[in-house]
Specification:
The complex is a heterodimer of chains A (about 110) and B (about 110). In chain A, about 0% of the residues lie in helices and about 55% in strands. Chain A is built from no helices and eleven strands. In chain A, a hairpin with a 3-residue loop joins strand 4 and strand 5. In chain B, strands 2, 5, 6, 10, 11 and 12 form a six-stranded mixed β-sheet that branches. In chain B, strands 3-9-8-7 form a four-stranded antiparallel β-sheet, with no helix packed on it. In chain B, strands 1-4 form a two-stranded antiparallel ribbon. In chain B, a hairpin with a 5-residue loop joins strand 7 and strand 8. Classes of the chains: A mainly beta (about 110), B mainly beta (about 110).
Chain lengths: ~110, ~110
Amino acid sequence: KAGVTQTPRYLIKTRGQQVTLSCSPISGHRSVSWYQQTPGQGLQFLFEYFSETQRNKGNFPGRFSGRQFSNSRSEMNVSTLELGDSALYLCASSTSDRVNTFGSGTRLTVV
Amino acid sequence: AQSVTQPDIHITVSEGASLELRCNYSYGATPYLFWYVQSPGQGLQLLLKYFSGDTLVQGIKGFEAEFKRSQSSFNLRKPSVHWSDAAEYFCAVLLSGGYQKVTFGTGTKLQVIP
């Protein structure tokens, strides 16, 4: 069975631009979570979606947003990019068993 | 404050030696506990989890972890390390009522020397 697919794998953007990252969960998984990983802050929870509704949100500014579609695929958007947004963005999907399966991530570089 | 602590940032072991990675958590109740491994530039792979029951849990790749409620610890162990185990290891917790908001420790980088 296919794993969690994140696209693109790598992205380079300029400060002030916006970016959209995509995540396709494992078939049948209705929960999708997003995490930001940086050397300085480690792994931080961004938000979680379940059945197209945001259930939980981390402590990030409003420039970070997300959504989930009816097929459980999810996107996250970062507007007005800053240098500090450079990170590995990880998506995870899960079922009611509470176990997250992670994708390989999208490496975002802001220049 | 609620937290997950991995006190060792880097650990170096010889191939074939035993390994123990430490993890302590600070929560009011026993959370769900996980260990993940990450190779450079990759996502996280689940090694094992503890929800309830037997406090010694077995995982993939020969890893095991022991939950000790009295010490709020969930240490990861492997009796004999292989060079391919070199990676970064993350302890993580999930509160039972916290949907899927997982809190991660800062990670321990494992180096394996021949």
